[in-house]
Design a protein that fits this description.
Blueprint (H helix, E strand, L loop, with lengths): L11 E2 L10 E5 L4 H16 L5 E6 L2 H10 L3 E4 L13 H21 L2 E6 L5 H10 L4 E5 L6 H6 L5 E4 L10 E2 L14 H7 L8 E5 L6 H11 L2 H5 L5 E5 L5 H10 L3 E5 L5 H7 L2 E4 L3 H9 L4 E3 L9 H12 L2 E3 L6 H17 L1 H14 L5 H11 L1
Parallel strand pairs: 2-3, 2-5, 3-4, 5-6, 6-7, 7-8, 9-10, 9-12, 10-11, 12-13, 13-14
Antiparallel strand pairs: 1-4
Helix pairs in contact: 1-15, 3-4, 6-10, 7-13
Length: 386
């Protein structure tokens, strides 16, 4: 179980001007960008329909604030805490205290924003919000993102007005199957050359895009550093360039590793231009959060997925399996031990760096199999029913 920062002042950020609408859609989900960005896609589709009164409820992690500040969306940080595992029963007090504080916060928020519908993408922030909305008889929409529904989603589905799921699951038998909701910036019409130029990359170089999502995935980063520490492996990058989004990992340290290996690379902590990053890419290495899989698939990007090794239910591996089975991606095990993971990467990465035909076949398989964007389906239900 990850440690979360203790509650400080609850921060609520409001827009300078509020649209005069018949009520606000409250979009709930946080802790990672993977829980926030699908809600952004839904908001964009609602705005296209003329429903632009919205408010986000996210966790009080600094990364959530960073995402919403960059997007200039109104949001409130929740003091909710995860349900503790049986191995850490002492955290139950934090959970109960967080639940009580978040419930009080939510009752005030529902009134202040005249909330007409709550959309939850799961996770610990969603629980108090859905329960509070149920008490007020406000329509509640659950959007399950992962192939293995989390504990919160399984518990909340029974009290939600409507349940959508990006993956089929016997645990959510009444869910309507949709593609994962995507933001507009997740795809782009730019050429690969223009996309590379927009990211300050060399336009004509084949590009390896590496992303560990919001937090960067330290074990994946260290595996790449171990991989390129070998001169023989590093030589395979001749003629290529790397664009690496490293999240909370130190940018200078990772940039120095690429420089020392003689690899042309640009390291950034965060980019919002994900469509450009995928369009620029010739090959991708990624974690396998549901959002990362959906974005890679929507962009028909040949991808090596290294699922998060710390999740007991291995839901990231299950997230990636449909794209892998379709032929658009490969799975590589993150062993946590950097040299071991580098060894696991060696055969597929070196082969795909060298074999254009193999990459082209994966891209074609992804293009023929990618699911539709589900944001419009969710937005249409809200517009018609809330």
């Amino acid at each position: 179980m990850e440690n979360f920062p203790r509650e400080g002042r609850l921060r609520t950020f409001a827009p300078k001007m509020t649209a005069a609408k018949r009520g606000t859609v409250l979009l709930v989900g946080g802790g990672t960008g993977g829980h926030i960005y699908p809600n952004v896609g839904i908001v964009e589709r609602l705005a296209a329909r003329g429903h632009d009164a919205h408010h986000f409820l996210v966790s009080d992690r600094p990364s959530d604030a960073k995402i919403l500040d960059a997007l200039s969306y109104p949001y409130t940080s929740s003091p909710a805490r995860p349900l503790p595992s049986a191995r850490k029963p002492w955290k139950a007090l934090d959970f109960l205290a967080g639940w009580r504080r978040s419930t009080r916060q939510l009752m005030a928020l529902l009134d202040r924003e005249s909330v007409r519908c709550v959309v939850a993408t799961g996770g610990f922030v969603s629980g108090p919000a859905v329960v509070a909305a149920a008490r007020r008889k406000i329509p509640r929409v659950l959007v399950n993102l992962d192939a293995v529904p989390g504990q919160a989603n399984r518990r909340l589905a029974g009290i939600c007005t409507k349940v959508f799921s990006a993956y089929p699951s016997d645990l959510l038998p009444d869910a309507e199957r949709i593609g994962l909701p995507l933001r507009a910036v997740s795809v782009t019409d730019l050429s690969a050359e223009a996309a590379r130029a927009s990211l300050q990359l060399e336009p004509d170089r084949p590009t390896l895009f590496i992303t560990g999502a919001t937090h960067g995935a330290e074990s994946l980063i260290k595996a790449m550093m171990a991989f390129i520490d070998s001169p023989e492996r590093a030589s395979a990058f001749e003629g290529w360039q790397v664009f690496h989004q490293c999240g909370t990992f130190d940018v200078a340290t990772l940039q120095a590793a690429y420089d020392d290996a003689g690899i042309t690379a640009r390291v950034v902590d965060y980019t919002n231009a994900m469509g450009a990053a995928y369009r620029a890419s010739t090959l991708v290495i990624s974690r396998a959060g549901a959002g990362s899989v959906a974005e890679a698939w929507a962009n028909h990007a040949p991808t090596l997925f290294l699922p998060n090794p710390y999740h007991k239910d291995q839901h990231q591996r299950h997230n990636a399996e449909p794209m892998v089975q379709a032929g658009g991606a490969l799975l590589v095990t993150d062993h946590v031990d950097a040299p071991a993971t580098a060894n696991a990467l060696e055969e597929p990465l070196l082969r795909l760096l060298r074999e254009e035909d193999a990459r082209a076949a994966m891209a074609q398989a992804a293009a023929q199999s990618c699911p539709p964007d589900g944001a419009e389906t969710v937005a249409a239900w809200i517009a018609d029913n809330a």
